Amino acid sequence: MANNHSFVRILGVLLVLAMYNHPIIVYAGEGVPNVALFTFGDSYYDAGNKVFLSEEKNPAQTFWPYGKSRDDPNGKFSDGHIIPDFIADFMSIPHGVPPALKPDANVTRGVSFAVADASILGSPAESMTLSQQVATFETMKSNWTSDYIKKSLFMIYIGTEDYLNYVQKHPGADATKQQAFVTSVTSQLKTDIKSLANLGARKFVVQLLAPLGCLPIARQDYKTGNDCYELLNDLAKQHNEKIGPMLNDFAKSTDIDGFQFSVFDFYDAIIRRIERHLNFRFYVSDRSCCGVGTHNAYGCGKANVHSKLCDYQRSYLFFDGRHNSEKAQEEFANLLYAANLNVIQPLNVRELIVYPSGERMREFWEPTKISIRRRPPQDDSYTGFSTY
Ligand SMILES: *[C@@H]1O[C@H](CO)[C@@H](O)[C@H](O)[C@H]1NC(C)=O
Ligand SMILES: *[C@@H]1O[C@H](CO)[C@@H](O)[C@H](O)[C@H]1NC(C)=O
């Protein structure tokens, strides 16, 4: 009895000692290396760069109701956090990634080069093209070692501006002209990705374009009522079809050693949330929470616009005319980080981060859902993964 007693005491002491020696720390992204996150693209990923390029002294996105859910309007286009903020959290990056144009930003764990109104082609006003963003990365590159850059994540979302402008300027373009335009956009994108790779980037995450004709701004501008504007959706689809094969080519080519990537099917993720919005607890998916017009798509946050603001932004898929609510952004970040091949392939972001740096990929992007390996085909292709 006495023996047992002291045994228990010793065990207790050992346990306490063990706890001091190996404190149990559980945090997001455990086991994931401390690498940086670099984001490129337009307002979806803009961490506040537009504020530095805008002639307007106090642009709308720096004012309530932007940032409403966090009581922090900070130049991001959402009622709160945007996708890269959540990804940064998952990667245990303490305060998200700062805008590249902010003086004296701490860039140790990465930076955002994305800026609202950015396009792939052209010379957008008070903004930057993707090539200009890549050039900015080049000027700052010596902040990081090449080994660190190689292990870090390069996330890209861009193209919306190109297609919205194109359709506005060429409403009657025929199929051949449309295809030619898509080809010029995607070839420039390819050139820009190649430039990043030449600067040492190796881990790419490309978010496919949303069904652009379903954005409240497109429904409002083209007066489609409850429908999406098919021409814009079609251009987005044509664009998206080229991304997987393009990245496969990079990964298979021998020019660039160890090129690795993930392609997130943002198009379908939005479509699922529009078609079956209640399954995702979005009560409104065709109008935005904040703005004026038939679909509340204009002027959110503008001082001279008396825009409507919904009561509860988490029940809206879109916060303003073209950007998702924070709740939706959080869902997309979770999909990017951890979803299966129905949603992101050939690797999700967590897998991409831990995939050995410098190694060639063993799996590649595949065009059809039939090829999805983890789940047998089903009659209703949406059944079974409405959580996605
Ligand atoms: C910058 O951020 C890194 C990592 O988040 C941190 O370790 C470092 O102390 C920061 N530097 C300054 C000057 O705040
Ligand atoms: C590091 O980044 C800062 C921007 O935060 C930039 O001003 C600076 O030139 C960069 N330093 C180097 C050595 O590249």
UniProtKB/TrEMBL annotation:
Domain of life of the source: Eukaryota
CDD domains reported for this sequence: SGNH_plant_lipase_like
Record's keyword terms, sorted: Signal
GO MF: lipase activity
GO BP field: endoplasmic reticulum organization
Signal sequence region: 1-28
Pfam families (alphabetical): Lipase_GDSL (PF00657)
UniProt xrefs under Gene3D superfamilies: SGNH hydrolase
Family named by the database record: Belongs to the 'GDSL' lipolytic enzyme family.
Record protein name field: Uncharacterized protein
Organism name: Capsella rubella
